[in-house]
Every structure is written in C-alpha cells, then in structure tokens.
C-alpha cells in the first residue's frame, strides 16, 4: 500500500474524529456541566494517538 493511501486514511480518520469531538462539545455544552465536558473531550483527544496507531497497524498488515 502506498504512503499516500496511508496518509489519506489518517487524514480522513482524524477529520472525522474532530467532527465527532466538535459535535459532542456542542451537545454537552447545553448541559451546563463544564468540568464534565472538559474531561470528556480531554479523554477523546487523548485517545486519538491510539486510534491512529491502530489504523496504521491494520493498514500495514494489509499492505
């Protein structure tokens, strides 16, 4: 598999992930529980490197 495909897959996953984070931030913002929202978003952003590494490993095995 070419490096361009791996890069494109990483970009698509990253963009989709941040769209999810933005949606959750907007949805949870109306709950008026700011510490909970900050904690949830920190956990989601902290999980992104693991998600990208798993994607890379999966695509590396296929290639």
Question: Which features characterize this protein?
Answer:
single chain; 63 residues; mainly alpha; membrane; transmembrane helix
Task: Report what the structure shows.
The chain crosses the membrane at residues 6-24, 36-56. This protein has helices at 3-29, 34-62. The longest helix is centred in the last third of the chain and has 29 residues, at 34-62. The protein is built from two helices and no strands. The protein has one domain (3-62). It is an all-alpha fold and 63 residues long. The mean pLDDT is 77. 89% of the residues lie in helices and 0% in strands.
Question: Would you kindly provide a brief summary of this structure?
Answer:
The chain crosses the membrane at residues 6-24, 36-56. By secondary structure, this protein is mainly α. It is built from two helices and no strands.
What general form does the structure show? elongated
What is the averaged pLDDT score? 77
Strand runs, count: 0
List the total number of helices. 2
Helix proportion range: over 70%
Q: Work out the radius of gyration.
A: 15 Å
Q: What order do the SSEs take from the amino end to the carboxyl end, as H and E? A: HH
Largest sheet, strands/sense/barrel: none
How many domains? The number is: 1
Runs in which pLDDT lies below 50 for 5 or more consecutive residues are none
Beta-strand percent range: under 5%
What is the SS-derived class? mainly alpha
The end-to-end span amounts to 5 Å
Transmembrane segments: 6-24, 36-56
Keywords: Membrane, Transmembrane, Transmembrane helix
